[in-house]
Amino acid sequence: MCLTLAFVFVEALAGYRAHSLALLTDAAHNLTDVMALGFSWYALRIAVQPANSRRTFGYHRVGILAALVNATTLALIALGVMYEAYHRYYAPPEVQANILIWVGSAAFLVNLITAWLVSHGRHEDLNLHAAFLHLLGDVFSTLGAVLAGVGIWLTGLNWLDPAASVLIGLLILWNAWMILKETVEILLESAPRDIDMSVMVRDVLRVPGVHGVHDLHVWSLSKNLRMLSAHVVTDDVSISGGAAILREVKDVIGQRYGISHTTLQLECVGCDPDHLYCDLHAAHPAKR
C-alpha cells in the first residue's frame, strides 16, 4: 500500500507535466489499488473472526463484498478512462515521450513487485484474487503506456497516448466483469461451476445403504469454502447404522468435491416427496 501510494504522486505529477493521459490514467488506477488493498486487508482481518449468535456462518462473506466493491470501482474507472480518451483522440495534446517512457517503466516495476506480493493465496481467496487483478491490470496498463511513449518518440503521433488508454480501459473492464460475475454467483448461492450436480448425486447413490437424495443444496460462503445440505433416503436402520452411512457420504463429498461442511438428514423410504431440489415456494407459500 505504501509503495503504491508513494508512486501515485510521482506518476500523477509526471503525467501532468508530460500531458500524458496514459500516465494520469495509470496514476488514478494505482490510487484505486491503494484503496482496494486497504479494503482487502480489512476484509481479511474481519474474515478470521469466529462465528457468533448474530453471524452463525462467521464473516467469510466480507471478502466477497470486498471483491464486489473492488470490481465495481474497476469498471467505473475503465469507463471514465475510455470517455476521456475519446475526447483526447480527436484533439491530442503534445505528449513528452521521454517522461512517459521513463516514468512508465518505473511504474511497471513497482506494479510488478506489488502484484507479486499479493499473488500469494489468491487462488484460495476471491478478495485477494480481485486485489491481484487490480495490480495485474496496472502491470499491463503501464506496459501499454511505455509502448505508447516509444511509439510517440519514434513517430510523433500523439494519438497513440489515448489509444493506449482505451486498450488499458478495455483490459480493466474485462477483469472487472470476471470478478463481478463470480462474486454475484456466490452471493446468489449458486452451485460452484466445477461441480456437476448430476454426477455428485450418482456418486452419493453408489454409497451402500443410500436409496435416494433430495432437498439438495450446494453453495459457497467464499471462493473455496463450500457448503452442502441434503436429505438422504435409507432403509429404516438403527442410529449407529445411519451414522455409518452419513460418514461414508461425507467422505465421498469431501474427497471428490472439496466440500468440508455438510449437513445431512436421514430419512426412511416413503418419508417425503422425492424432489431433488427443494421447492421453497411450495414449502412457504407467499401471503396475499
What does this structure look like?
There is one protein chain. With 288 residues, the protein is mainly alpha-helical. The protein folds into two domains: 2-187, Up-down Bundle (Alpha-lytic protease prodomain-like); 197-283, 2-Layer Sandwich (Alpha-Beta Plaits). Helices cover 65% and strands 9% of the residues. The protein contains nine helices and three strands. Strands 1-2-3 form a three-stranded mixed beta sheet, with helices on one face. Helix 2 (21-47) runs antiparallel to helix 5 and helix 3 (61-90) runs parallel beside helix 5 (126-155). The N and C termini lie far apart (53 Å).
Give the CATH topology of the largest domain.
Answer: Alpha-lytic protease prodomain-like
Output mean pLDDT: 79
Return the CATH class of the largest domain.
Mainly Alpha
Report the helical percentage.
55-70%
Structural class: mainly alpha
Low-pLDDT windows of residues: none
- State the fourth-level CATH superfamily of the largest domain: Cation efflux protein transmembrane domain
Number of domains: 2
| Biggest β-sheet strands, sense, barrel | 3 strands, mixed
Strand content range: 5-15%
How many strand segments? 3
Give me the Rg, rounded: 26 Å
The name of the CATH architecture of the largest domain is Up-down Bundle
Dominant shape: elongated
Series of secondary-structure elements, N-terminal to C-terminal? HHHHHHHEEHEH
Annotation field: number of helices: 9
Strand order of the largest sheet: 1-2-3
